[in-house]
């Protein structure tokens, strides 16, 4: 069955403008930080090969614009996502409050097969800054309340926890894939039968 | 009545061996100036006595009976009359009912007997052709608006033996007139289906084939079916169809298949011709508007009167960097063109006061006020975030505590006060940065930014309706101009054109260096040659990538990546030139639709016919109105002018002649 596993994982990074989505992606893929990144317009993605449990998988990480009004177009890129990374800035409480709506919006637009178990990961970024405004405890509590979403505190600038976070993202996305396949064995067959029945009925109608 | 007289005037014994339409008469010795710069058709005509003539006929003479013409066949009407068309289809009617008009028009025909032709030359990217029957004098000069003179020259060379002169590769000397091509007629001669001169038939087939494979093949085929149905008697030939002919016909059939689509319906097959665009003219870029010209264009009090002419010049070549500071204020509607220096001084004073009063509105806000004003706070926070990441690699904005960043922020926050409903949207800092870099001055930059935002405000709509609308229009334009690519994109889930979002939102700011974006923007600000020219820029860039995108079978993600990676790898002049070429292709396409006309801001056909509705005028007068409309709508380079510019028609023609021709000459 492992041969049927997808070797490409599509990961979407979401969060308010300026929380560090592009920086996190670049830190993970290119091991670089720059404070000269421009605001993302439209969408872009980077790919990176990672090894998870002795398997080589390609992560395709999608970065979109953070300003709210651009989301109506950003949804075009959500399709087929295997994991969603929600980022907030620990120095800006508003960006933390937005997490809920980012998560809801993603679930509505991407409409994954099993929304309750779709893998999310939350990153509280910019922990290198002094003016922290959202405590780790508060963030963790929120994550627990949302079906135990994994939470990491990161610094894209100083490469803190970035590697670890993305490893978890890849692992959870893969696990989701495997589970989906397990589920598929049964429900799909039943569905297939249902379809067949439907088709037969149609056929009967035609024959009459 | 007029119809019968026209048939007499143009007896069928004279036949057009080759015709090329959209040919502009640029110069002709001994003709009044009023005859020049009109569009017509350049033909090679075989006379009754088998001699041949190069003929140019003004467009108003060549209108076709509209009752025998439907859209698909309209194209055919320019093909030579040697073929098996019903007589009525080829009848020429004149555009007016009055005989004197006709005589005047007839007098404007230019004839050059091929026997007398001494030299000809092809210049300006193969778009200009000059003829001479007397050494040392070029008597006539023509400009090929649609495509170039290559096919015409190829055909002409079939009738005259030429040699290139040593000192000028573009000039041909006629060595021996009236030779016949020996190679291609052989196969058709063997088939012996044509009673006429086989050279001409073959050449009609071959030369027309390139442009109109469908119709040309059908003509040739009708001859072949004659053989099949009527045997040898009807065609006086042997049944021995040579292999070469079979090859030729097979080839033409294949090409026809490529150019047609077959839709199967329940009871019948619908075969439609895939319309193709006319060849793309390559129009060279001009030189930037120089300081000398700019100052010369102003009257003693500093007013600029020839606004359209200035815009034409800027469209052709941009603005010299040294005068951009001045010219941009006009292009961005900060300085009105018709204001004198004194008036501009007063305006600047007023605008400076207005700017600082708006700036004071946010500067004077206390911390407490701000804390209770979340809508302002949110906007301010977005501005601060983006200012710190706008063009920071450019020396003007680089480094910590750069004062230019403060100005950038001040202007954007003042703009929030100027248009609080729109506020600040990502992308605005990209729009402002080059303006501030060039102008250096806070107040000037602000008002120029306001002018630019007025042009593109819909890009920043809350619901993104403006962007969605443009992406749709872009898709429609691409479908018309590059159907193969549009089809590929649609198959790859990319028909929504989202991968062009960044291009459109900030008018290609992220795709070019500061130097190049200044050139591109100033050209786009002229609003020439049509509305939404920036969408044609997109089409031009995509068209250049077409082969890669299709041959590598790129999908949704690869297309996006490829397009994003074009950033900083694009040649602005080449793209502008291509986009202009595509514009001419599109507007001169016979199948141009109202949908495309609306996007490009051209008058629609339905509008123009509705103005004539209700009149039961004879068909000749209908074709007259069409002809007249075309004449008015088609200016220099086949450029369509909308009704606003028609008022300046005289002025525009004059300016275009002076400036644009001067640059091209």
UniProtKB/TrEMBL annotation, chain A:
Locations listed in the record: Late endosome membrane
GO biological process, one term: endosome to lysosome transport
Any one GO molecular function term: GTPase activity
CDD domains: Rab7 (cd01862)
Keyword Lipoprotein attributed: yes
SMART domains: RAB, RAN, RAS, RHO
GO CC, any one term: lysosome
InterPro entries associated with the record: P-loop_NTPase, Small_GTP-bd, Small_GTPase
Statement: the UniProt record of this protein carries the keyword GTP-binding: yes
Keywords for this protein: GTP-binding, Lipoprotein, Nucleotide-binding, Prenylation
NCBIfam families: small_GTP (TIGR00231)
PANTHER family assigned: RAB FAMILY, RAS-RELATED PROTEIN RAB-7A
Similarity section: Belongs to the small GTPase superfamily. Rab family.
Protein name: Rab7
Species of provenance: Spodoptera exigua (Beet armyworm)
UniProtKB/TrEMBL annotation, chain B:
Name of protein: TBC1 domain family member 15
PANTHER family, sorted: LD27216P, TBC1 DOMAIN FAMILY MEMBER GTPASE-ACTIVATING PROTEIN
InterPro entries according to UniProt: Rab-GAP-TBC_dom, Rab-GAP_TBC_sf, SGSM1/2_RBD
Entry's Gene Ontology cellular component terms: cytoplasm
Pfam entry (one): RabGAP-TBC
Subunit details: Interacts with non-phosphorylated form of RAB8A; phosphorylation of RAB8A at 'Thr-72' disrupts this interaction. Interacts with ARMC12.
Subcellular locations according to the entry: Cytoplasm
Biased composition (Polar residues): 607-626
Entry function: Acts as a GTPase activating protein for RAB7A. Does not act on RAB4, RAB5 or RAB6.
Region (Disordered): 607-637
One Gene Ontology term of the molecular function aspect: GTPase activator activity
Ranges of residues in domain Rab-GAP TBC: 318-528
Keywords: Acetylation, Cytoplasm, GTPase activation, Phosphoprotein
Manganese found in the keyword field: no
Source species: Spodoptera frugiperda (Fall armyworm)
């Amino acid at each position: 069955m492992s041969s049927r596993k997808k070797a490409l994982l599509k990961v979407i990074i979401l969060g308010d403008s300026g929380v560090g989505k592009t920086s996190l992606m670049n830190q993970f893929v290119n091991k670089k930080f720059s404070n000269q990144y421009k605001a993302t317009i439209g969408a872009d993605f980077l790919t990176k090969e990672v090894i998870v449990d002795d398997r080589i998988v390609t992560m395709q990480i999608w970065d979109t614009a953070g300003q709210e009004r651009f989301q109506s177009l950003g949804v075009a890129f959500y399709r087929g996502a295997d994991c969603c990374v929600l980022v907030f800035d620990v120095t800006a409480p508003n960006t933390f409050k937005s997490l809920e709506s980012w998560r809801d919006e993603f679930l509505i637009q991407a409409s994954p097969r099993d929304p309750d178990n779709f893998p999310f990961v939350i990153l509280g970024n910019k922990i290198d800054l002094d003016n922290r405004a959202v405590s780790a405890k508060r963030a963790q509590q929120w994550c627990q309340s949302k079906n135990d979403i994994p939470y990491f505190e990161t610094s894209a600038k100083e490469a803190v926890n970035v590697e670890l976070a993305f490893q978890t993202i890849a692992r959870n996305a893969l696990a989701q894939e495997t589970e989906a396949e397990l589920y598929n064995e049964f429900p799909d067959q039943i569905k297939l039968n249902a379809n067949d029945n439907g088709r037969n009925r149609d056929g009967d109608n035609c024959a009459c | 009545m007029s119809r019968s007289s026209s048939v007499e005037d143009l007896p069928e014994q004279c036949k057009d061996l080759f015709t090329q339409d959209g040919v502009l008469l640029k110069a002709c010795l001994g003709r009044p100036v009023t005859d020049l710069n009109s569009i017509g058709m350049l033909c090679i005509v075989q006379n009754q006595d088998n001699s041949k003539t190069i003929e140019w006929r003004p467009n108003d003479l060549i209108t076709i009976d509209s009752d025998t013409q439907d859209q698909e066949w309209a194209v055919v009407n320019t093909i030579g009359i040697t073929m098996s068309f019903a007589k009525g289809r080829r009848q020429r009617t004149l555009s007016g009912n009055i005989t004197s008009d006709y005589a005047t028009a007839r007098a404007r025909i230019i004839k050059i007997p091929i026997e007398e032709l001494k030299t000809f030359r092809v210049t300006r990217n193969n778009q200009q052709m000059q003829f001479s029957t007397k050494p040392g004098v070029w008597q006539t000069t023509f400009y090929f608006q649609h495509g170039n003179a290559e096919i015409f020259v190829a055909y002409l060379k079939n009738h005259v033996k030429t040699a290139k002169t040593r000192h000028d590769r573009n000039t041909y000397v006629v060595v021996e007139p009236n030779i016949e091509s020996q190679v291609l007629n052989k196969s058709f001669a063997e088939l012996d289906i044509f009673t006429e001169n086989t050279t001409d038939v073959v050449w009609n087939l071959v030369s027309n084939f390139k442009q109109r494979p469908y119709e040309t093949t059908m003509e040739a085929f009708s001859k072949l079916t004659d053989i099949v149905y009527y045997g040898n008697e009807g065609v006086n030939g042997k049944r021995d169809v040579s292999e070469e002919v079979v090859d030729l016909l097979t080839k033409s059939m294949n090409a026809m298949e490529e150019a047609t689509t077959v839709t199967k319906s329940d009871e019948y097959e619908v075969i439609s011709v895939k319309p193709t665009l006319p060849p793309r003219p390559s129009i060279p870029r001009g030189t930037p508007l120089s300081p000398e010209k700019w100052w010369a264009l102003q009257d003693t009090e500093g007013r600029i009167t020839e606004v359209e002419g200035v815009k034409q010049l800027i469209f052709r070549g941009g603005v010299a960097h040294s005068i951009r500071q001045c010219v941009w204020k006009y292009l961005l509607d900060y300085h009105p063109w018709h204001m004198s220096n004194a008036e501009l001084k007063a305006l600047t004073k007023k605008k400076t006061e207005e700017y600082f009063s708006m700036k004071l509105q946010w500067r004077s806000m206390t911390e407490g006020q701000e804390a209770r004003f979340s809508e302002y706070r949110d906007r301010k926070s977005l501005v601060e975030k983006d200012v710190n990441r706008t063009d920071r690699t450019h020396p003007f904005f680089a480094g910590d505590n750069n004062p230019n960043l403060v100005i950038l922020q001040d202007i954007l926050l003042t703009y929030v006060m100027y248009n609080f409903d729109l506020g600040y949207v990502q992308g605005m800092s990209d729009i402002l940065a080059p303006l501030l870099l060039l102008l250096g001055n806070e107040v000037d930059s602000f008002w120029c930014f306001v002018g630019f935002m007025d042009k593109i405000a819909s890009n920043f709509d809350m619901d993104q309706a403006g962007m969605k609308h443009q992406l749709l229009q872009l898709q429609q334009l691409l479908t018309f101009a590059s159907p193969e690519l549009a089809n590929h994109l649609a198959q790859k889930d990319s028909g929504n054109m989202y991968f062009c979002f960044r291009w459109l939102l900030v008018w290609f700011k992220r795709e070019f260096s500061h130097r190049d974006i200044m050139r591109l923007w100033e050209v786009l600000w002229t609003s020439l040659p049509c509305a939404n020219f920036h969408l044609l820029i997109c089409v031009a860039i995509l068209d250049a990538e077409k082969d890669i995108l299709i041959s590598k079978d790129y999908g949704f993600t690869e297309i996006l990546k490829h397009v994003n990676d074009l950033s900083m790898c694009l040649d602005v002049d080449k793209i502008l030139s291509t986009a202009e070429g595509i514009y001419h292709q599109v507007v001169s396409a016979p199948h141009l639709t109202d949908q495309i006309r609306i996007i490009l801001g051209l008058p629609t056909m339905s509008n123009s016919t509705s103005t004539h509705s209700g009149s039961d005028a004879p068909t000749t007068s209908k074709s007259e109105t069409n002809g007249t409309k075309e004449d008015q709508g088609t200016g220099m380079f086949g450029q369509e002018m909308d009704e606003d510019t028609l008022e300046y028609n005289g002025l525009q023609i004059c300016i275009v002649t002076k400036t644009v021709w001067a640059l091209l000459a």
